[in-house]
Amino acid sequence: MVDAATAHDAAAEPAATEAPAGPGLWTGFRAMLGRDLRLAVRQRGEAARVVMFFVLTATLFPFGLGPEPNLLARIAPGVVWVTALLSVLLSLDRLFLTDYEDGSLELMVQTPVPLSVLVLAKTAAHWLTTGLPLCVAAPVIALMYAMPAEAYPVLLAAMALGTPSLSLIGSVGAALTVGARRGGILVPLLVLPLYIPILIFGVAAVDAALAGLPVRPHLLLLGAMLLAALPLAPWAAAGAVRQAVD
Questions:
Q1: Of 18, 73, 167, 200, which has the maximum CB count within 10 A?
Q2: Would you give per-residue pLDDT tens digits along the chain (246 residues)?
Q3: Measured at the alpha carbon of residue 79, what is the angle toward residues 77 and 82, in degrees to the nearest 5?
Q4: Closest CA to 178 of 88, 134, 241
């Protein structure tokens, strides 16, 4: 009886001392997303600054080009996309910098949740506080430029597919420059060449809608770039973050 009890206790000991399982991927993603969204709500000025920059920059073009309605309608897609791209660039330098300065980034690296999942959550929060407001404000800019109403759905679809890619690609640039001196200047130099295809196909989709041509190929290409950036950008950004904190 003693031997049987001893054997039972020995068999149960590993189970009792086994380390508890780490949090799941979805739990870690949701916790990081909620954290960054709460911080963004407390610092509403950052998101408002991006939208104000988008609107104010777009309103400057008519003063320089004149009030000709046909000219403004023709340049509207390019103005919307270029100003949206610049607005996203304006917000990228703070994506990881605050966490790097207060030490939170080191804790993220040490968590059992894969760092790429946490980076994806931070990028999603960035898009929700930056890209989504730009998508909402884009029709207002198009209305100011007298863009025909039939192009509005295509503009929204292109922005909805393109702006997440801007945030994902931008997260790689922000991660590569975190902790670097004058990192805010380096980020545009790194990501602008990668933004050009998104800019081209985003504008081309709206131009095709205005000309009565098929828009499906342009939207599919924007979707393909988003699908490629979803797994690759968080993985690359996570590697850069890990290198920055080592």
A1: 167
A2: 344 444 444 444 333 333 333 457 888 899 999 999 998 888 777 778 888 999 999 988 888 887 788 888 889 999 999 999 999 998 888 888 888 888 888 888 888 889 999 999 999 999 999 999 999 999 999 998 989 888 999 999 999 999 999 999 999 999 988 877 666 678 888 899 999 999 999 999 999 999 999 999 999 999 999 999 999 999 999 999 998 887
A3: 105
A4: 241
3-state helix, strand, coil in the chain (%, to 5): 85, 0, 15
Tokens of 99: 């966490």
Q: Where do the structural domains in the chain lie, given as residue ranges?
A: 25-245
Amino acid at 201: F
Cβ(130)–Cβ(166) below 8 Å? no
Give me the torsion for CA of 35, 36, 41, 46, rounded to 10°. 160
**62, 63, 83: which is closest to 73 by C-alpha?**
62
Q: How far apart are CA 179 and CA 236, in angstroms?
A: 17
Task: State how far the alpha carbon of 84 is from the alpha carbons of 9, 54, 133, in Å.
Answer: 65, 6, 10
Contact 163, 84 (CB under 8 A): yes
What is the reported pTM?
0.85
